[in-house]
Specification:
- By secondary structure, this protein is α/β, with parallel strands linked by helices.
- Helix content is 31%, strand content 15%.
- It has a single domain (4-173), classed as 3-Layer(aba) Sandwich (Rossmann fold).
- It has helices spanning 18-25, 42-54, 67-78, 131-141, 164-173; strands at residues 4-7, 29-31, 61-65, 85-89, 118-122, 144-147.
- Strand 3 (61-65), helix 3 (67-78) and strand 4 (85-89) form a beta-alpha-beta unit.
- Helix 2 (42-54) packs across helix 3.
- It is globular and about 40 Å long.
Length: 174
Amino acid sequence: MPTILTVPGYQNSGPGHWQSLWEASLGGVKRVEMSSWEHPVKAAWVEALDEAIADCQEPPILVGHSLGCLAIVHWAEGHDREIRGALLAAPSDVERPDALAVLRPFGPIPRLRLAFPAIVAASSDDPFLSPARARILAADWGARFVDLGPCGHLNQASGHGPWPRGEALLSDLR
């Protein structure tokens, strides 16, 4: 079974976040640790992801949330290690006029077709990504798009601790 690498977003994923719960309950799930969760630096995040991928015995599955999704796509733009697939949950649109200044350096968002299977799972009422933009990014990345309906930013603040639907999407990539 491939290693699953979780790539949290800005400010990391707390203990009750679905990524943390997966790390505790599913086998072979490891978090990619970033040098700074509060002051993300794109190059450092991409390098940390590359090192984590290089440490895997076989091609991993990447599971990004929010800004972590963009770290994955930026990594894909400049690296060619083999990846089994990626679940990109609630990507953050850092190109929005109201995006936090600390996140803007992750733009421009790469608009390349990913070299591995990917699923973009997005909410219809995510405050950080419009449904139309989510569909455009999924199409640009060659990813399957999954409309999750109204469920916020897929984080604890929007009521997501366990995320069974996400586990089903992860199974699709396994």
